[in-house]
Design a protein that fits this description.
alpha+beta; four-stranded antiparallel sheet; three-stranded antiparallel sheet; about 25% strand; extended
């Protein structure tokens, strides 16, 4: 990366400063010695609300009040259903197997009760209605949240 490119990035950073916070801003450029490459650090402004941001803004998970809202209507979830949805939605696209979900949500570290995860996923999908497709089954592996 040349010196001129770094200057262009810094100018872009000033342009982004007044833009929408979701677009990100270049925070720094770090040259990597002996490679001719550079590491560009980009930052995003995130509000301190306790809510997990969703790109479509159709489903809101508020950890502080432990509520889930879909299309403006609050969904009544049990403790485990909320924990399961919150855990999956915290890393959209990441696939979790049943054992990982049992450990994270139920604090169980054995394979006994793996069907419990399936039953809770089924109930959660029913309650999410038209948004049920956001919880995706990865065949022979587990589940993921498709944000």
């Amino acid at each position: 990366m040349t010196h001129a490119t770094v200057i262009d990035l810094m100018a872009r950073q000033r342009d982004i400063a007044g833009a929408d916070p979701g677009e990100g801003a270049v925070l720094g450029v770090i040259p990597v010695p002996e490679t001719g490459a550079s590491l560009v650090v980009v930052g995003y402004l995130v509000g301190d609300t306790g809510k997990v941001p969703r790109p479509a803004r159709e489903i809101e998970i508020d950890r502080d009040s432990r509520t889930v809202t879909a299309d403006g209507a609050e969904i009544d979830l049990t403790y485990r259903e909320f924990e399961l949805l919150d855990y999956l939605a915290a890393a959209p696209g990441r696939v979790y197997n049943r054992r990982q979900l049992l450990a994270a949500v139920w604090d169980r570290y054995d394979d006994a009760g793996a069907r419990t995860v399936d039953v809770h996923i089924l109930r959660l999908r029913r309650k999410l209605g038209r948004h049920a497709g956001r919880i995706v089954t990865v065949r022979n592996v587990g589940y993921k949240y498709a944000g």
